[in-house]
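Thread: quick sanity check before group meeting

JM: Hey all, I'm pulling together slides for Thursday and realized we never actually wrote out the predicted structure for the chain we discussed last week. Dropping the sequence here so it's in one place. If anyone has concerns about the input, flag it before I start.
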Amino acid sequence: MTSQAYLDTIKARTGLGPEDFRAAAAAKGLLGPDVKTASIVAWLKDDYGLGTGHSMALVSALGQVPGQRLPVDEKINAQFSGAKAHWRASYDALVAHARQLGEVNLAPTNSYISLLKGSGKFAIVQVTAGRLDLGLKLPGVYGAAALEASGSWNSMVTHRLRLADPADLTPEVLDWLRRAYEAA
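JM (edit): ok, ran it. Output follows.
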């Protein structure tokens, strides 16, 4: 169900739209950067009988999901802050290589960055202080020594490459990225 479908159902059930809920949340002191999502969800469940999905659609519409309204560049920069900063050059090289293949859109979340060809995801990048994980969508590819199945790490991709050092960004890794782009 899309967020708009949730909002339409909420309007039909309660007679209230997002702006009505915004006013009610403001009156209860439930808007602002220090308000926890769980507090808003609990209020919506208790006062309006909404379920978790409907409540989260409203939390999103109210702009209360942490980092939701940040520009793409700020969300990406946040991924490479502090001890993860040394991975930025590797990420930039991955994106530059992908953009040599064609149009690439970036869709960062709070924990990883999706690389899209049009609206189709072909890769994700997730960094920690000690590793850059490159997830690739390569359906039908089996037995490649460099690749591991993504398993429960991220169900949006089929394979995972763990780079432990920026020097691990080799021509072979870039070739796997190309294959994922072409398959999208």
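AS: nice. The helical segments are 3-14, 18-27, 37-48, 52-61, 72-79, 88-101, 171-183. The first helix runs from residue 3 to 14.
JM: adding both to the slides.
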